[in-house]
Amino acid sequence: MERDKQEQCGNSDTGYRRVDDEDGGEVESRNCRLFKCCSYVKSFVTSLYDVSLFREPVYITILTCTFVATFGLNSILTHLARKGVDIGLNLKQASFTVAMVGIGQIFGRPVLGIIGNLPKMKPSLIWSACLFVCAVLGICSMYIMTFTAQLFIMCVFGASMGGYMVMISVAMAYFLGRNKMGPALSVNFQVVGCSGLISGPISGFLRDHYGDYVVTYWVGGCAILLASGLAFLFIPIDKCVKRRRNKTSKEKHALNNVTNGDINQDLSLASKV
User: Contact 106/233 with Cβ under 8 angstroms?
Assistant: First the structure.
């Protein structure tokens, strides 16, 4: 005789069931298999990422800032040598401007890293200042044609870029704590990679469409300026979140005190009776 007995799969809240077949063997329903697949995916994701980080508004702002800043910086750096040729430098001179970016980072990373680790220094402000300098110099490099000026601009650009890259880890330790810096940085590097994937093709398309790098560098510079503004918001966002959490914890503490007082009062009245 056919059996239509249904047995629930998982807890009572899931609504996913499995049905016995005619021979008495268990046949999982499609919903049950989907539920198991989703649980496996959830376990895999939670093993790779610290999901609690995505509930931190300041961390979401940092990731957004990193994505926008990487887009702008890559738009400028990817076409730096070709831009030099377009403004009148020979190929050797244009290539040397790229080298100056690396030379600037050699000095910018340690110096700004030391400054960012000072006790009273806010790393987000250094982050914002470095990106602001990169944006201004990146745009100005399109309108300064001399080789010496290009070398100076790219050296300062590289130093500022190096300072920004160092401040990423310092800012995450400052806002999220050292214990969460590892998981936070791993996601940040993935965001950097995704931004780098789209910045090159888009900036190249703008150059091909308009015939020069003026629009490309303006778009990249504006993106870096936007990232600089986002970095300036790290401190207000962090203070706002902490203030709200402190207010919520105080309200819960006061509610618990009132509840405990009522319970104690009821117990004392009962003991008197």
Answer: no
The residue assigned the tokens 């049950």 is 32
Distance of alpha carbon 43 from alpha carbon 114, whole angstroms? 40
Q: Which residues of the chain have pLDDT under 70?
A: 1-31, 33-36, 38-49, 249-273
Q: Is 8 helix (H, G, I), strand (E, B) or coil?
A: strand
* Residue in this structure with the two tokens 């076409």, named with its chain if needed: 79
Residue 88 is given by DSSP the state T
Which residue in this structure is represented by tokens 């239509």?
Answer: 4
Residue 106: the pLDDT is 92
Please return the burial class of 241, using the count of CB atoms within 10 Å of its CB with bins 0-12, 13-18 and 19+.
middle
Of 116, 107, 168, 157, the C-alpha closest to 135 is 157
The single-letter code of the amino acid at 213 is Y
CA–centroid distance for 123 within its chain: 16
Instruction: Give the C-alpha separation, 61 to 11, whole Å.
Output: 37
pLDDT of residue 217: 93
| Predicted pLDDT of residue 45 | 59
- How far lies 268's CA from each of 240, 245, 250, 255, 256, in Å? 42, 34, 27, 20, 18
DSSP class of residue 22? T
E strands within 66-137? none
Q: Cα(234)–Cα(241) distance, rounded to whole angstroms?
A: 11
What is the model's pTM? Answer: 0.74
Strand runs labelled E in 3-72: 6-8, 17-20, 26-28
Query: Closest by alpha carbon to 31, among 21, 23, 19?
Result: 19
